[in-house]
Amino acid sequence: MLIGQNSVVSIDYELTNDAGELLDASPKSQPLTYLHGASNIIAGLENELTGKAVGSQFKVTVPPEQGYGTHQPQLVQTVPRDAFPDPDDIQAGMRFTAQSDNGTLSVVVTGVTDDSVTVDANHPLAGQVLHFSVNVAAVRDATQEEIAHGHVH
Ligand code: ZN
What we know:
Elements: E1 7-16, E2 22-25, E3 32-35, H1 43-49, E4 57-62, E5 76-80, E6 95-100, E7 103-112, E8 116-120, E9 130-141, H2 144-149
Antiparallel strand pairs: 1-2, 1-3, 1-9, 4-9, 5-8, 6-7, 7-8
The protein binds zinc ion.
């Protein structure tokens, strides 16, 4: 059976960046399972999986446009330090959740001065070229309920 629209697909994967550093991987014998064709995974990886079968192993390089998007400068903002609940205890690398007009944003602190904090709401992998190494572990048809919900049960 080949992977197509409404296949439920399980993959083992490793994700590395351009420098060859490991960013993410599926745990051993615990493949990632997703509904194919429902944009549950990034486009560049989903497209490459179309037509593959169980046992297929491949590598794919995904540009930011097909991955987590380009890095958008307007998502980097400088805000007053006292806008934070604990203003004396803010360091670069800390993560916060912020409310915005578009819902909840996850931001990371990228800079701190005496009275201001720079936060970046881009996805941590935005702007990065992603290198996936993939093994297709299982493929089955989705149930009607899974198709209706747009995700795997
Ligand atoms: Zn559901």
